Amino acid sequence: MTAHLEAHEGAAHLQNRNKNLAEIFAGAKTDPHYQMHDATVLSHHMFVCGDLNYRTNFLGDGGDDYSTSKDKKKGKRDKMKRGISKAVVSARKLTSPSHSSNDGNDVAGATASKEERGKDNGSHFARAKELVDAEDWKALNEGDELARALEKKDCLVGFETLPCNWPPTFKVARGEGYQYNEKRTPSYTDRILWKSAHGMEDNVVPFLYEPCPDFITSDHKPIRGGYVVKMKNATKCNKKPPKPKKGTRESNLSNTHERQVNLLISNIKCTDLPIMDSELLGGLSDPYILFVSYPKPLLWRKGWHSTKIIKRNLNPVWEEDIHLTLDDTRCKDDDGSLTLHGSMLYMTVMDEDFSSGDDVIGTVALNLNNLCSELNISPSSSLNANHVQETVVSTPVLRDGLEYGMMECTISSAYLTQKETKGFLKMAKRGEKVRSKTRKKSLTNIISNFLRL
After folding, report:
1. What is the pTM assigned to this prediction?
2. Checking DSSP bridges between strand 438-439 and strand 434-435, what pairing results, if any?
């Protein structure tokens, strides 16, 4: 994804840049079969690059206070924060996950006067120029607004970038080298970031990240990056289940003896979910979780499996265990082997809303291949039925590049026959409440989707 975000220095413009990114991601739906998920959740690997316009801002140098998360936790506040306008404080509240809104209103204070912008622009120029002359790239990176925003999780949660170990690339004179405009603070406005899905983090290896100082036709020096992306053949689902060859082991087995991947999801809870309902409806949320697979046929059963709905709760605990069985009959290689490379389990937290259709709170994306990495899923497996892989999950709930609470659960996986599955389900702490039902679209959802078209 490429982007050119809002320009200018100052807290209001910084908050608008963060908001710009969330709005872009909210519209970045790359697969018509997965309209609940934006590209930051659905992509195996995603790169974001362009003139993101994040500026250099030094704490305590007379500019806007933008404390790091460590400062916030320790309660350290610069005295200058007392002078921050109410408009800026409101802007920060509006852009935090628990106060986020899609009402389209601009952040308060975004329309700063020319006088205010003139005061902000270049306010840190002397300090930045001093560090440039000293080639103190570490100190310059510490003043980078984007680095602070990533640390505070104000945008691009889960994305990585390399440090800029070179002179700031903005704002420069059109010519060779780095001659800076004194009305602007030298900043690293042009950037490249990337994010990899769970279990694929080591598959992107950067080997180049540098500016192009000889570029002389702009007040930006462009940057370039080089990355090795390790690829594997992803799971492909056939439209129809393959017919077993005559005389093979598969053709002589009944469905009772065929093995399938089973998942038992227990101890499910979420914390710090955002408020999704209006104050008239209680000012809370009515969360439930959908269990979505990629590729779709692995879990789709005329609907996605789901938990029960917990009414008016921002810290729900589900007193039930979820049993999922992967339909691998359409996801096998020519030799009958099942491969889960690239397959994902999306645990999507929803908010029930009868008035306008259920809303997506956020998603936890898990790599199915990792969840089953200890299982022998070859067709000739003689795996002991007691062999179970257990994974403890504690990860943020994400949407549009922002964090909307945390999810915790335990996922037990095993490759079993139907007979062995009965023993597997006895592991459930709430065996009498194991849930395997699917949640189909309600009439409200259907009407709402029709009206949106």
Report:
1. 0.80
2. unpaired
The counts of H helices and E strands in the chain are: 12, 15
Please give the full DSSP string across 105-118, using - where no structure is assigned.
PPPTT-S--HHHHH
| Residue with tokens 């986020």, as numbered in its chain | 100
Angle at 352 between CA 350 and CA 355, to 5 degrees: 135
Task: Locate 337 and state its tokens.
Answer: 């082997």
The residue among 40, 41, 44, 34 whose CA lies nearest residue 304 is: 34
Verify cis geometry, omega within 30 degrees of 0, for the bond prior to 213. no
**261: amino acid identity, one letter:** V
d(CA 251, CA 288): 40
Write b or e for each residue in 332-352: b if 16 or more Cβ atoms lie within 10 A of its Cβ, otherwise e.
beeeeebbbebbbbbbbbbbb
**Chain centre to alpha carbon of residue 1:** 14
What is the rounded distance in angstroms from the CA atom of residue 69 to the CA atom of residue 153? 9
- Residue 385 has, within 13 A of its CA and on its CB side, a CA count of 15
In sequence order, the β-bridge partners of residue 271 are 406
Residues, the chain: 453
- Could you identify the residue written with the tokens 């980078």? 144
Q: Which among 297, 316, 320 is positioned nearest to 425, based on CA atoms? A: 320
For residue 69, count other CB atoms closer than 10 A to its CB: 12
CA atoms within 13 A on the CB side of 182: 2
The count of C-alpha atoms lying within 13 angstroms of the C-alpha of 138, restricted to the half-sphere facing its C-beta, is 0
| SS3 per-residue string spanning 47-95 | EEEEECCCCECCCCCCCCCCCCHHHHHHCCCCHHHHHCCHHHHHHHHHH
Whose structure tokens read 């999704």?
A: 276
pLDDT in tens, the chain (453 residues): 999 999 999 999 999 999 999 999 999 999 999 999 999 999 999 999 999 999 999 863 334 444 433 344 333 334 333 333 333 333 333 334 444 334 333 434 444 445 444 454 445 899 999 999 999 999 999 999 999 999 999 999 999 999 999 999 999 999 989 999 999 999 999 999 999 999 999 999 999 999 999 999 999 999 999 999 998 776 666 655 555 555 544 433 345 568 889 999 999 999 999 999 887 767 899 999 999 999 999 999 889 999 999 999 999 999 999 999 998 776 666 666 778 889 999 999 999 988 778 999 999 999 999 999 998 876 555 555 458 999 999 999 999 999 999 999 999 999 998 888 888 888 776 654 556 556 655 444 544 444 444
